[in-house]
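Structure tokens please, single chain.
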Amino acid sequence: MGKLILIAVLMMVVIANIEGTTEVAAGTAVLVGSNPNEEDIDGGFSSLDGMLQWAIGHSDPGVLKERSEIAQRMSLEELSNRQTELKELMEKLKMPSDAQLMLIAVNDLDNSSLPLEHHRRALEELLVLVEHIDNAIDLQKLGGFSVLIRKLDHSEPEIRTAAAWVLGKASQNNPIVQKQVLELGALTMLMKMMKSHTTEEAVKALFAISALIRNNLNGQNLFYQKAGDMMLQEVLSNSNLDIRLHKKSLFLIADLAESQLENENTVEVSFFSNQLLLKAMVDSMASSDLDLQEKALYAIKNILLLRSTKVLLFKDYCKLNEALERTRKQLQQFMVDDDLREYATDVESLRKEVELTFLQKLDKVTQAAL
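Here you go.
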């Protein structure tokens, strides 16, 4: 404690000398103020200012004034020596950079001799750090993605789950990271994790898949090649699965169809004509969950907008007409509830939009056949 007070006094004297100020006493300390929250839980400080404010705020004003007067009587040479000491001490107190923290976490994660708790903690730290786009890019330079992808095959589901979560976070809206992670073969492993009996593992794997291929044509093509339509169809057809998996699957389908619409020069894929997948999407509209209904309608709308969509498949095999009518009646019931009325009204607007798009496309096909 005494050392920190002395550092604070020296810092104040140095600042005063630089600015030509002669008074550094208790009154000045009051002006600077204090903030006990600046103190780091591990005993470090996030900045010099944080340390200065903490030391002043925890000091006795009389002692601070006395030491300030002593410091002011120091010669320039003595002050210079103290400044050097201060620099050296601050280097020791300095917080590690994000890159250093990531390297520590990666090394811990890669050390199989460490207990599981250390691996879990390392993954938790990486999950926070990779939210910053530059940190996510730097993680590859540290060998982090290779280590994380190896953990996708770990014997413990919670480690696999956490590793998938970190990869998903790092890949979000980050084409540089998407490319790196795809090249390391993560997509195949994540798709394999979708068959897990652990719900959280499947949820985080699907989150990572979506983040990895969003707005990434190479990733999307790889997903198509690896029968991504079958994977999503199996999810949507299984009513026993967690509803989050159904929602994330529909959101991904809608996103893929939107990407196809935005890239008109790309070859349209058979993914969007998988009749079992389309039927599972239409059946999802029967859910009592408004959010799921909305996601199903949005995905269907985007697919109907594609040039290659086989609208007769929606009519004859998926029975979209009947499904839209059932959904209309269900939404009317939701509108009776004050808490659901506004949301149900929005979903009904989307339902009408889907119906209109469907009927217009169906009419074009009928006219062409005449």
